[in-house]
Amino acid sequence: MLGVISLFGYLNRWNDSMGTAIEDGAVESGDQYLGKHGWEKGKHGGGGY
């Protein structure tokens, strides 16, 4: 269990550091359900820096 938690922590940090692009379906869901609460895809939009 500790290994799984560690792996997901590592992957979370990797995706944040690299600005990994979010898939279109996930962006659409985020906009639909979280957009009204201020959610933005930020650096994970795939447009580069």
Secondary structure category? mainly alpha
Helix content: 55-70%
Strand composition percent: under 5%
Q: Major sheet: size, sense and barrel closure? A: none
State the helix count: 2
Mean of pLDDT? 91
Low-confidence stretches: none
Distance between the termini: 36 Å
Q: Please write the string of helix (H) and strand (E) elements.
A: HH
What does the overall shape look like?
globular
Find the count of extended strands (DSSP E, 2+ residues). 0
Kindly provide the radius of gyration, computed on alpha-carbon positions and rounded to a whole number of angstroms: 13 Å
Tell me what the structure shows.
By secondary structure, the protein is mainly α. It has helices at residues 2-18, 24-34. It has two helices and no strands. The protein is globular and about 35 Å long. The protein is 57% helix and 0% strand.
Sequence-ordered SSE layout with sheet pairings:
Layout: H1 2-18, H2 24-34
Give structural attributes.
mainly alpha; 2 helices; 57% helix
Summarize the structure.
This protein is an all-alpha fold and 49 residues long. 57% of the residues lie in helices and 0% in strands. The chain has 2 helices and no strands.
